[in-house]
Amino acid sequence: MKQYIKVDGWNIIEEGFVPHYNKISESIFSLGNGRMGQRANFEETYSGDTLQGNYVAGVYYPDKTRVGWWKNGYPEYFAKVLNAANWIGIGIRIEEEELDLHKAQVTHFSRILNMQEGYLQRSFTATLESGKQVKVTATRFCSIVDDETGAIRYSITPLNFEGNLQITAYIDGDIKNQDANYDEKFWEETGASIQHSSAYITLKTKKTGFQVCTGMQFNVYQDTRPLAINVRPVQKEKYVGVVTTVKVKSQQETVIYKYAANLSSENHPVEALANNCEIAVGKAAAKGFKAMLKEQAAAWAIKWKESDIIIEGDPAAQQGIRFNIFQLNQTYTGEDARLNIGPKGFTGEKYGGSTYWDTEAYCIPFYLATAEPQVARNLLIYRYKQLGKAIENAAKLGFNNGAALYPMVTMNGEECHNEWEITFEEIHRNAAIAFAIFNYIRYTGDTAYLAEYGTEVLIGIARFWAQRVNWSEARGQYVMLGVTGPNEYENNVNNNWYTSTMATWCLQYAMDALQHVKETAADRYDAIIKTTVFDAGKEQEKWQHVIDNMYYPVDEQLGVFLQQEGYLDKEQILVKDLDPAQRPLNQKWSWDRILRSCYIKQADVLQGLYFLEDRYDIDTLRRNFDFYEPRTVHESSLSPCVHAILAAKLGDEKRAHEFYLRTSRLDLDDYNNDTEDGLHITSMAGTWMSVVEGFAGMRVRDGQLQFTPFLPGKWQSFAFNIRFRGRILKVKVSKQDVNIENDSTKDITVLIYGETVHVPAGATVTAKQGNLVN
Ligand code: BGC
């Protein structure tokens, strides 16, 4: 745990240069706009420890897997979002010396991520070996208005000399993924051009054949006037740059503006890439840095209006939650249904930038409540479009008749991870995808989604479950063998309660969906039956039989659902009785020992109780929570939020807050010593859930919003903005009151602590905490 980030409501601030923290800060200060993103690398050369990272959404490479004994059914590749061309590069030479913070003496260093307006600013004073001193302020952003462009303002002022300043503005495409399995380079150059102060390079990925044209244009100002510069092109393999030398005087500021664009063949015809890139760069340069930044701030103001959380009385918590919301909004904007949310977003290479069940289980609620319905809908459509591949995935494993198994890790719908037990056997992801459809419709009321897209997906998923169970003669029930639940510290188990419960839930939901479509959209029903070759009578009869005869492990004496068959055979030593020196288990214990232990990596039974909470009475929730929580080590950042929400529901406000604290500043404080790999983007959505579903108790039942709020810890108040069915609401919970402001033109009726409250358009209503006032 580190605490070097200065607490501030709207800014993330680092003061002082600690090379040892550089990779952590590169992750924390990352920028993105849903279409591209980058780590907070330096513009000028840095020869110290760094992970250079630029990423273009949707551009991936199928790296060869590393598997000892290949078996049928293993995926052929391990896909990763590629580290792409570095467009921020501005090399600075002062006379004969290169500006490199690894070699210079650095003072007055600061990095500020301005979350309100969406830009990064870095300042420092560097003393070179020769004693020459320069002051630099670099500001940059990835535009959320023109999401293929970015801009940099790089200001440099000599403090004690005059002479020549050589500037090289460049794009470096000779980039390698640090996590490449065989140290291969994945890009090859297909074209490059340099025209005066602009340069363009097109790179193509091997195998997948994606092409990305990255372009830049720069200009130089002194005394607020543009300089007519002499330029010299530099071209090397996968590299284009432009060099200019300007005379500088002591205390005279030189400002370099660099405009860049990243265009991918996913969005442009290959033959038009270079030309369109030139247009995009030209447009940015014509608009100018100041105007672009102004637009950026205005666009972020709208995002904050919909998604901000305001906490009074705890500045560190305020900064933590805003940081999470900021990063989520930088990662996914919902504008493109081909894109998804990698667990590390655009902030690092780990998890390959692929799509996991994290999206459906943890991220959907955030985007549902903080953006137009289209945003979450596009995440669902992403899976709809991959239904064919999910059917192929299942067929490769021996399933038939249109059974669909969505991948645990994917780029294009194909499974692309290389661990069997932990990853492939986590077939529970299929259920999260069905649950996301349910969750989306529950929140938005968009039941038409079922006829349009949802039901086909649900049929594929239901068919998979109906084939994945088998009839046990011995039990006279259906069982589900050889699975891994969300708790990855148990592999290849039989009858995982969560998986079996969610499987039958999916079967029932698929039948409900079919019935709904039959009643409301007969034509679509007929079309779906035809496309899916669905034998409505026979197949549903089987589904019903599975629902009625499924085996779920329970312990009657303890009154708890059993995570899986045989869980109680394990030695039951609680986490509190474990020597803290033994943790985290995944770093201290052998895998063999972990698998045999009773310790739970992340919510498993409790994940099911969270999803399906309305099925269970409060005593059942409490018994299971009290049993599993003391056995959970939360070694996945996705775990504490589920515990926070359940603790809040059980009235344990103190513990709800404690669970929240485990993830709220996870990356800002480098809680798990792994922030340098990238940020935990998907768990950030879980932190948001802890506040809104946990502390505010927000639920949607029968189309109505409900709240049962309490004020955690030392907070004086908290407020959050949400969208709900055409309204923008601001919910504020303070010591005495709960206020709901309806900032829209439509009235709404909500439930607060079980009482109906009408909130007219434009009005604010107040209820007493725990008791209704008016
Ligand atoms: C978790 C998974 C998750 C993955 C990616 C793992 O550590 O156990 O549930 O999908 O990380 O975030």
TrEMBL record:
<dbReference type="InterPro" id="IPR005195">
    <property type="entry name" value="Glyco_hydro_65_M"/>
</dbReference>
<dbReference type="Pfam" id="PF03632">
    <property type="entry name" value="Glyco_hydro_65m"/>
</dbReference>
<dbReference type="GO" id="GO:0016757">
    <property type="term" value="F:glycosyltransferase activity"/>
</dbReference>
<feature type="binding site">
    <location>
        <begin position="601"/>
        <end position="602"/>
    </location>
    <ligand>
        <name>substrate</name>
    </ligand>
</feature>
<dbReference type="Pfam" id="PF03636">
    <property type="entry name" value="Glyco_hydro_65N"/>
</dbReference>
<dbReference type="GO" id="GO:0004553">
    <property type="term" value="F:hydrolase activity, hydrolyzing O-glycosyl compounds"/>
</dbReference>
<keyword id="KW-0378">Hydrolase</keyword>
<dbReference type="InterPro" id="IPR017045">
    <property type="entry name" value="Malt_Pase/Glycosyl_Hdrlase"/>
</dbReference>
<dbReference type="InterPro" id="IPR005194">
    <property type="entry name" value="Glyco_hydro_65_C"/>
</dbReference>
<dbReference type="GO" id="GO:0005975">
    <property type="term" value="P:carbohydrate metabolic process"/>
</dbReference>
<feature type="domain" description="Glycoside hydrolase family 65 central catalytic">
    <location>
        <begin position="322"/>
        <end position="689"/>
    </location>
</feature>
<feature type="domain" description="Glycoside hydrolase family 65 C-terminal">
    <location>
        <begin position="698"/>
        <end position="759"/>
    </location>
</feature>
<dbReference type="InterPro" id="IPR012341">
    <property type="entry name" value="6hp_glycosidase-like_sf"/>
</dbReference>
<dbReference type="InterPro" id="IPR037018">
    <property type="entry name" value="GH65_N"/>
</dbReference>
<dbReference type="InterPro" id="IPR008928">
    <property type="entry name" value="6-hairpin_glycosidase_sf"/>
</dbReference>
<feature type="active site" description="Proton donor">
    <location>
        <position position="488"/>
    </location>
</feature>
<protein>
    <submittedName>
        <fullName>Glycoside hydrolase family 65 protein</fullName>
    </submittedName>
</protein>
<dbReference type="InterPro" id="IPR005196">
    <property type="entry name" value="Glyco_hydro_65_N"/>
</dbReference>
<feature type="domain" description="Glycoside hydrolase family 65 N-terminal">
    <location>
        <begin position="13"/>
        <end position="265"/>
    </location>
</feature>
<dbReference type="InterPro" id="IPR011013">
    <property type="entry name" value="Gal_mutarotase_sf_dom"/>
</dbReference>
<dbReference type="GO" id="GO:0030246">
    <property type="term" value="F:carbohydrate binding"/>
</dbReference>
<comment type="similarity">
    <text>Belongs to the glycosyl hydrolase 65 family.</text>
</comment>
<feature type="binding site">
    <location>
        <begin position="357"/>
        <end position="358"/>
    </location>
    <ligand>
        <name>substrate</name>
    </ligand>
</feature>
<dbReference type="Pfam" id="PF03633">
    <property type="entry name" value="Glyco_hydro_65C"/>
</dbReference>
